[in-house]
Design brief:
Helix content: 40-55%
Shape: elongated
Distance between the termini: 103 Å
Strand order of the largest sheet: 1-2
Strand content: 5-15%
Number of helices: 4
Radius of gyration: 37 Å
Order of helices and strands: EHEHHH
């Protein structure tokens, strides 16, 4: 690539005043400002390493990508699962991805994370099932006979009271 050399744009009056740094600030008024004409060459404008960048949000975006003239950039809002699917499809089609240094290492890392997540979920479900079984066993245990008789007596008394109160109202 043949890049033009651009001048160092310095802050207006920075050479006169020590307290002003060299970094560019837009001057107010009519001082000398950068002029039109300092853009990059039209043939290589908007290119990264000689390829035009294309933002990829899903696998279908890869289908329209030309690997000889375009480079893929994964969208920032794409999740890990979809990102992994996109990377797999891109490696099959020999498409370079700009914001991944090593696609193979990325895929291995994500697979490990998914496996760890699955292990944690299975452990949680096992704990929940064990807790349910314990709760069911406690419910199934027969209560003491004395407690059962007391409960049935109380229920009968409550029914009789309710019937007696309804009879008085009528």
């Amino acid at each position: 690539m043949n890049a033009k050399k651009k001048p160092a744009f310095k802050r207006y009056l920075s050479h006169r005043l020590k307290k002003l740094g060299d970094s560019w600030r837009k001057p107010r008024g009519k001082p000398s400002m950068p002029r039109i004409g300092y853009s990059s060459d039209r043939k290589t404008r908007f290119q990264i390493n000689g390829l035009y960048p294309v933002i990829i949000q899903n696998i279908h975006d890869l289908a329209s990508l030309n690997p000889q003239t375009e480079i893929a950039i994964l969208g920032s809002s794409v999740g890990k699962k979809k990102r992994m699917e996109i990377v797999e499809a891109a490696t099959k089609k020999n498409i370079t991805i700009m914001n991944l240094k090593d696609p193979k290492a990325f895929m291995e890392k994500v697979k490990k994370e998914i496996d760890e997540r699955k292990k944690v979920l299975t452990e949680k479900t096992k704990k929940k099932e064990a807790a349910r079984k314990k709760a069911e066993e406690k419910k199934e245990e027969p209560k003491k006979e004395g407690e059962k008789e007391e409960l049935t007596d109380k229920l009968e008394e409550d029914k009789q009271k309710a019937l007696h109160i309804q009879g008085d109202k009528a």
